[in-house]
Structures are given as C-alpha cells and as structure tokens.
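Predict the holo structure. Ligand: 4'-deoxy-4'-aminopyridoxal-5'-phosphate.
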Amino acid sequence: MDTTIFSTIESEVRSYSRGWPAVFTQAKGSTQTAEDGTEYLDFFSGAGALNYGHNHPTMKAALADYIASDGPVHSLDMMTPAKRDFLQTFQDVVLQPRGLDYKVMFPGPTGTNTVEAALKLARKVTGRQHILSFTNAFHGMTLGSLSVTGNSMKRKGAGIPLTNSSKIPYDDYFNGETEDFMWLERVLEDSGSGVDKPAAIIVETVQGEGGLRAARLEWLKELSQLCAKHEILLIVDDVQAGCGRTGTFFSFEEAGFTPDIVCISKSISGYGLPMALTLFRPELDVWTPGEHNGTFRGNNPAFVTATAALKEFWSDDSFQKGQLAEAISIVQDGLEQISSAVEGSSVRGRGLLTGLHFEDIEVAEKVAAEAFQNGMLVETSGPDDEVLKLMPALTTPKDELERGLGIIATAVATVTGTDVEYRPGDRELVGS
Ligand code: PMP
C-alpha cells in the first residue's frame, strides 16, 4: 500500500487519514473496503454526510440516469428541471407536512456556507451586529462561523480577532446548578448591562463536534420563547443533526417550536454530494438579487440525488417510525449496556448522533483506534476528544448495528480493562 504521495505533497492539515491509515477503494452501504482488501464497518458516515450509507442504489440509479442524459451539471442559480423537482419535493415531502412556511435559499454547498448566509441575513434583517452562540458550539471554519464556534484550537486558526459574537452557556453547562437562562434574561432586560441586543442566537440541538451534548427539548423551547420575547432571531444549525439523524427530519421537531432560520447541509443530497440550504421565514427574505452569491450553488447531480432520497425515505413516516426508530433503540440500548458496565462513562447525544463520554479523556481515542484495528470506522468528539461518537447510517441493517456495538464493547473492554459484554436484544429491525 503506497501512501507516500499523501504524506509528501498533501498538506499537514489532513487529519482523518492519520487515524485511519487505509486507502479506500470501495464503499457500499455501511462498508468501506481498503486497497489491501480489509473491510471496515462504517459508524462515521462521512461525518454525517452519508445518512443513507454509501452509494445507495436508488440515488445511484437516479444520478447515473441524469448524467447519461446530459442534463446540466452546473447551473449557478439558473432554473433547471432538477432544481424544480428538488424544490417541489422538498415543499411536498418536508415543509408542507410539518406545517413549515420557509423560503429556500441555496448558499454555497457546505455547512459553513449556510451558517454564513444565516448570520449575514440575521444581521441584515435586524440591523444589529452581535450574535450569541453556545459554549462548545461548532458551526464551521470560515470566519463568521468560527466566530460563533467554541473550540479554542479551531478559533486560534483564524489568526485574527473573532468579533461581534459572545458565548452563552449551553444546556446543563453548570450541571443543573444554575438556572439556565438567568444571565441572558437579566442582561437583555437591563439597559445598563452593557450587552448589546443580539441579531440572533445560533444553536445546535445536539452538539455534534462539541462532545455530543444534547439540549433538553424543554430547554430549546424556552430558548425559542426568550428569543421571540426579545425579537431576537433563532437560528438552528441542523447541518449535522438534521436529515433524520436524531430520529425526525429536523432535529427540533419534537421540541415544539419553529426556528426563524434553519441551516441544512451534509446529508441533504443523500449521496455525499455537496449541497446546502438556508431556510427562513418568508418575512425575512430581504435579500436583493445577487447580494449573496456563489459559483457552486446549483449542483444539479445533488438536486437529483436529494430528490430521490426525500422520495425514498421521507414521503411518508414509515421509514422514520420503522427502520430508523428501531436502529435508534438498538444503538441506545447497546450504549446503555456498555456504559453501565464501565465506571466513569455515560451515554451522550440523541438518536443516531450519540456516543459514550469517558471521564478519563484518553479512553475514547484509544477505543476508536482499537475499533479501527478490528475493522471499524468510529470517531471521537469533544474539546479533548473525550467522547466516542457513533454515527452509523440511518439505514444500517440490524445485524451490522449489533456487530458494530460488539466491536465497540470489545474495544472498550480492551482499553479500560473492564469486563464489558454486549448482548444484542431480539428486536426485529423493520425493513432490513
Ligand atoms: N455546522 C455544524 C453543526 C457542523 O457539524 C458542521 C460540520 N461538522 C458545520 C456546520 C460545517 O460544515 P462544513 O464542514 O460542511 O463546512
């Protein structure tokens, strides 16, 4: 296996290829195969960009047909049938059944692009500059997104002051000892507080990169009420937690509120193709034509696979209530089993954006490395990489979920020296 070209010419900035020193040649469903023939069970799913696994046959067929038909690939924000079908399907399958009245904006095709668009729009609509975000938040690598991100190593990379934003405590930051919104409510009401009224508050319902902290639904609802009361726009960054990852299409659905702005990317194309959306209430659509543009906003192959994915999985609730709900319960049950056997560990996250927090901050990385040796891709999260982060595809069959949980249990046992065993339940995974 020759990897010299990667270590000589590719920048030192590369990271995944260091922890997973394999050259991947094939990817299908939840399996990636390396050049040396080793098969890896993928519990990473392209950092959440592959919620339906690798090369799903429905999306692959739609994409192959589109390419064979010589349909336009690149179209900026011009009109194409592929974009028309996507917008219609998104309206019919996602927005309308959930009673959501949003305009759809296509920013550049990445998560940080939709966050930048959201921040810019919130500032333009309100005429205010300040944005509040949360401790341990992660919103992307461009300057605006970095300014609302918590991680000090990533922030330092900016090389300039990150201004016009402040951090406020995420749910449970003080272990329930301090009333959650006490400081925020007080400073917003006190004209002498010196805290400028923000244009927006941006929040992840589950902090994917920041250590899999999951906000309680009632906390999110309270946050939305506070924002409404003070006319502050609420942005939900659903780049990682959205597209079914937490068990519903949007991660905020069960919390019973409607964000003013929603950021979507990663799995919206359903196939790992770059694509992003910024959704907002129609009254907020104050953009002038071309005010926020970008060359790669019209990625037609992504529109085609996104449409196929929405039709395949979200046109009724059978996937959500069947296979997805079962997969979540299998994974949550497995993690509970492992965590109850290992002192100093706890289950974090929600749905299939979940994992194990270890008080000993060295454990998670060692477990991920051990799992790789045993044929599995699973990553870590959190400021000290102290959380083992599981993100299997939502479509992973029952036997593969159980096999993965078994590999993790064995790796945890090896690393911690604890007697951990995973005993799969006897559930039937609907549709697998
Ligand atoms: N927001 C959230 C919540 C994310 O998890 C990420 C990526 N991990 C981003 C934004 C940035 O997305 P991208 O890497 O595509 O710019």
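The chain is about 35% helix and 15% strand. The first strand starts at residue 24 and ends at 28.
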